[in-house]
C-alpha cells in the first residue's frame, strides 16, 4: 500500500468544553478522493481543519510528507497552506470586493507570480471550470454554482497536493451540485490532487474513491479501495 499523503492519528480536539474529536484517525492517500460523512456535530469540519493545518489538535498527530503538521510553527504552516493545500467551503468564501478573475489570481500573487502571469493562469482555470466570461463579475453577481466553481478554481490554481472541501455543494441545488462535483473530481483526477470531501449527501459521497464515517468524534467505519483500507469495519457501498 502506498504511503499516505496525509495521516491523522488519534486526534482529540475540544472547542471549549465541547468535545469535537475523541481519537479520530484517518489517512488521505496521494491522488485519492476521500469522502468524510457523519451526522451533524460528529466532528467532520474539525477533522478537516486539523488535517489542513487550520486548527491544531489538543492531542494526536497529523503527519504530512514526514512532517508533524500539528507541531509546525505558524509561518511554516501558513506557507504549506498557501502552496500545497487548497480549501473550499460551503459558501465559497470568495472575497466580495474582488472580481472572479482576481479571486482566482490571488493565491498565485501571494506565491510571488507576476500579476500578468497570475491573471492569465486564473483565466485558464476559470475556463476549465466553465466560468469563462465571468472574469469581471464580483461574487455577488454570480449564481451559487458559478461562485463555487470560481472557489474551486481558486483552490486548485496553485497545483496543490490536497484540496479540502467542506460541504462544497451544501448550498446548491442538485444540478449545480452535480456540475461542481463533476468539475472538482475531473480536475483533481487530471492533476493528481487528493481531495478530502465532507458531505452528508450520499450522492456526493458516491464521487469519492473511499469513504470514512465519523460518529461522536471517532471514525466508526471506512469503505475500502482495492488496495485495502486501514481501519475498522467496512461500509458496503
Ligand atoms: N468554534 C466552535 N466553538 C464551539 N463549539 C464548536 C465549534 N466548532 C465546532 N463546535 C462543536 O464541536 C462539535 C463538532 O463540530 P464539527 O463542526 O466539527 O462537526 P460537523 O460534523 O462538521 O458538523 P456539521 O455537519 O453540522 O457541520 C459540535 O458539537 C460543534 O457544536
CATH class: Alpha Beta
Structural class: alpha/beta
Helix content: 25-40%
CA-based gyration radius: 17 Å
Order of helices and strands: EEEHEEHEHHHEHEHEE
What separation lies between the terminal Cα atoms?
A: 21 Å
> What is the number of strand segments?
10
The molecules bound to the chains, other than polymers, are: adenosine-5'-triphosphate
Shape: globular
CATH homologous superfamily identity: P-loop containing nucleotide triphosphate hydrolases
Secondary-structure map:
Blueprint: E1 4-15, E2 18-29, E3 33-38, H1 44-51, E4 59-64, E5 67-68, H2 74-83, E6 85-88, H3 100-110, H4 115-128, H5 144-156, E7 162-166, H6 174-191, E8 194-198, H7 202-205, E9 210-215, E10 218-222
Parallel strand pairs: 3-8, 3-9, 6-7, 7-8
Antiparallel strand pairs: 1-2, 1-4, 4-5, 9-10
Bound molecules: adenosine-5'-triphosphate.
Adenosine-5'-triphosphate is lined by residues 15-16, 18, 20, 38, 40-46.
What's this entry about, in short?
With 237 residues, this protein is α/β, with parallel strands linked by helices.
Overview of this protein structure:
This protein is of the alpha/beta class and 237 residues long. The protein has one domain: Rossmann fold (3-Layer(aba) Sandwich). It is built from seven helices and ten strands. The strands form two sheets. The chain has a six-stranded mixed β-sheet, sandwiched between helices. Strand 1 and strand 2 form a beta hairpin. Helix 3 packs parallel to helix 5, helix 4 packs across helix 5 and helix 5 runs parallel beside helix 6. The longest helix is centred in the C-terminal third of the chain and has 18 residues. The two termini are 21 Å apart. The C terminus is likely disordered. Bound molecules: adenosine-5'-triphosphate. GO terms for molecular function: ATP binding; ATP hydrolysis activity; transmembrane transporter activity. It comes from Streptomyces avermitilis. Keywords: ATP-binding, Nucleotide-binding, Transport. InterPro entries: AAA+_ATPase, ABC_transporter-like_ATP-bd, ABC_transporter-like_CS, ABC_transpr_LolD-like, MacB-like_ATP-bd, P-loop_NTPase. This is Macrolide ABC transporter ATP-binding protein.
